[in-house]
Amino acid sequence: SVFLCFTISAYRGYFEGYSNMYPTAISKLIEALFKLILGLLFSYLGLKITQNVAFASVFAITAITFGTAISTLYLHLKFKHENTAKPIKLKSYVKGELKLYLRLSLPFVFAGLTASIVALLDVFFVKVPLSFVNESYVNTVILHNGELAGDFSTLLYGIRSQAFTLYNLIPTFTSALGVSALPIITAYFVKGDRQALKENINHTLKLISVVTFPSGIGLTVLSSEIMILLYSNSSILGVNLLKIYGISALFAGFAIPLITVLQALGKKRSTIINIVVAIFIKIISSLI
């Protein structure tokens, strides 16, 4: 699955470079649908055959690989049909070109890893400290939420994950808008057409605003209704977290697309500095 994801990213990047977001969108839809359909089918069969929840989970996870494989196949056929460029043999690359390629691509890779780095930090600075909560806090949570069965820190982190999943929808959506604008902004920047460049950046930010502000405010105002609707075991803790995440989403919705805009303008170093500073602030605030 991981290997196929590399291949998928290469194909998607090719089409996105030509401002064609349709193959990316269709491949993601194919991937998600097959993960869902095969995931449910495999887990059902796994549970029926083995009567073991653990094995059913393994069967369900296997569907992810099938989803990525079918998505890769679609992109490969699409690429084969539409690609007009001549294939480049690896031997034709000289050492200097490979260095240039790495130097240009690494800032984009680092920016793309931000979400994964943040998720990893949360394990160390949120989940681990939860295992050291004192008894009075546990009793307070039980008082307001009722008895919580199972490992306390895992349950609390699970509640947090429910709210975070909803919050994460907003930056995920707006980042796609940023990616689609990247080649257009880059093209006008290279041409030196400042007026068209300004108009396209403003247009991108307006589109992001249309998504971010209603979504973020909606998550905050309707946090209780949303959590009850989506999660049968929703807790007041999750509702309160979603209220805070809704406010955070107003900023997160703009963060990734703005990084993309800066990258399109050739300011890759600025984006790295921005990300490093943000992660440093997150670590310090999490420790406090």
H/E element sequence: HHHHHHHHHHH
- Strand pairing plus helix content: what structural class? mainly alpha
Total number of strands: 0
Oligomer: single chain
Determine the fraction of residues in helical runs and give it as a percent range. over 70%
Supply the number of helical segments.
11
| Global shape | globular
Poorly predicted regions: none
Q: Describe the largest sheet.
A: none
In whole angstroms, the N-to-C terminal distance is 38 Å
Overall radius of gyration = 22 Å
What is the mean pLDDT?
A: 84
Query: Approximately how much beta-strand content do the residues carry?
Result: under 5%
Descriptive report:
It is a single chain. The chain starts with a helix and ends with a helix. It is an all-alpha fold. 20% of the residues are buried. It is globular, with a radius of gyration of 22 Å. It contains 11 helices and no strands.
Topology summary:
Layout (H helix, E strand, L loop, with lengths): L1 H16 L4 H29 L2 H30 L12 H18 L1 H17 L4 H11 L6 H40 L2 H28 L1 H8 L5 H29 L3 H20 L1
Helix pairs in contact: 1-3, 2-3, 4-11, 5-7, 5-11, 7-8, 7-10, 8-10, 9-10
Q: Could you give a quick summary of the protein structure above?
A:
The chain is an all-alpha fold. The protein has helices at residues 2-17, 22-50, 53-82, 95-112, 114-130, 135-145, 152-191, 194-221, 223-230, 236-264, 268-287. The protein contains 11 helices and no strands.
What key attributes describe this structure?
288 residues; mainly alpha; 11 helices; 0% strand; globular
